[in-house]
Amino acid sequence: MGGELATAGPAVRISHLRVKRGRRLVLPDLSLEIPRGQVVGLLGPSGGGKTTLMRGIVGVQIVAGGTVEVLGRPAGAPDLRAKVGYMTQAPSVYADLTVTENLVYFGALLGVAKGRVAEVIDQVGLAGQAGDKIANLSGGQRSRASLAAALLGRPELLVADEPTVGLDPVLRASLWQLFRELAAQGATLLVSSHVMDEATRCDRLVLLHQGRVLADATPAGLLASTGAVSAEEAFLTLERQAPQTGPGQTGGAP
Amino acid sequence: MSPVRTFATARRVLTQLRHDPRSIAMVMVVPCVVLGIVAWMFNATPMVIDRFGPMLLAIFPAFVMFLVTSVTMLRERTSGTLERLMTLPLAKADFLVGYALAFALLAAVQAVVLTAWAHWVCGMDVSGSLAGLMAIAVLDAVLGSSLGLAASSVARTEFQAVQMLPVVVVPQLLICGLLMPRDQMPTLLQWLSDAAPFTYALEATGDLAAGRGWADAAPDAAMVAGFVVLSAILGVVTLRRRTP
Ligand SMILES: Nc1ncnc2c1ncn2[C@@H]1O[C@H](COP(=O)(O)OP(=O)(O)O)[C@@H](O)[C@H]1O
Ligand SMILES: [Mg+2]
């Protein structure tokens, strides 16, 4: 498999990424590195640009400037497509197909072995629903089916956009455990969430606010540097300090 | 391109159709009902169905297949599955050809059913070969779905995709010779009609139905096939992995 891909260096290296969506400059100038083999949490309020950044990393977002390198290759390069798994924010599976039919199709595109479909179904806890149409599943089950599709190819980088939204605490905990296991096996995970209490599950946190990186640190480092007791409080502290694009602006113009 | 991924895509689309009897019913039943109503209305003058039946046979399958293809592609876009596919190792040509194969199968069944219905139930009599008419109807239906695929690829947004029916298909219906013989149209419209794929679909069926035979119909059929290839290429070239 793709011996050309870099095996050292960060999993993702972004420099001066600039993205416009419609008239809005969603990411004005974003630079970030995501180290390998870690679970990195991408946190921030809704509308902060998490999805846009992830789309840039998997190579489906039109960008206005800057570079995004994934495993040493430009984002979206053909040889990355089998190495990067993407779980979109809204479940992207065929509603009129069963869980198994969906995964068999995506598996055929990735060229995975036959038993792999049953394996990922087990991993996301959908064994009981394998023969059910997606349309007949609950929101949380659909989103896990979508996650299963992203896991099929044993991606080196898994980009998961709010995978735990709408899940009960037990399922949420089991998904985080799965993410930890994947990282232990060497995969890199970028997981977004707007729920700050999930921060403690990550090796590293990136706080995104209005398209800017407010912080990029370990959970402990974040608390130490802000003097906060929780990620939520740390975020609020940093947000207050950040140059705002509104009235009462202190720092230099953005 | 990879045959495995192309056929996997075709199989997936056919599985979706199998789970969706209503859209199969729309594809199979609606054209038959419309043809049946025309035949019934002009029950007293069988000439009418003999003359208009072949025209409907040329245009209807193409129209319905365009619609079905566009709707399916629109769903692929809104459900986010198209975005997922664009991150997977699936060539754009694999994707579009897979779709085209699945819809060609559907189109073939539809065109055969409709032709049989027109002849044996609605009493449409043609001077030429019925089998030839069926073959052209299949080709026209394939044209409809490949135009649908191309239009959906060209569209950048869902909104644009929805507009493709009035923009691509309706003008063709007006100028292809269905409503008025082409030689009676203003010159400018004749030129436009020369560029419209549906024109050749209609001419090919007209030739065969009138018993003028393959020598007359073949060039028109070749034009239709040419448009199928052209729109497939247009689809592959314009489909984008990156979106705004
Ligand atoms: N297709 C789009 N066209 C125009 N603006 C968009 C589009 N999608 C998202 N945006 C805007 O981009 C900003 C960031 O959105 P997003 O990346 O989805 O944030 P998050 O995932 O953090 O909620 C928002 O202000 C949103 O309104
Ligand atoms: Mg989002």
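qc> DSSP finds ten helices and no strands in chain B.
qc> done
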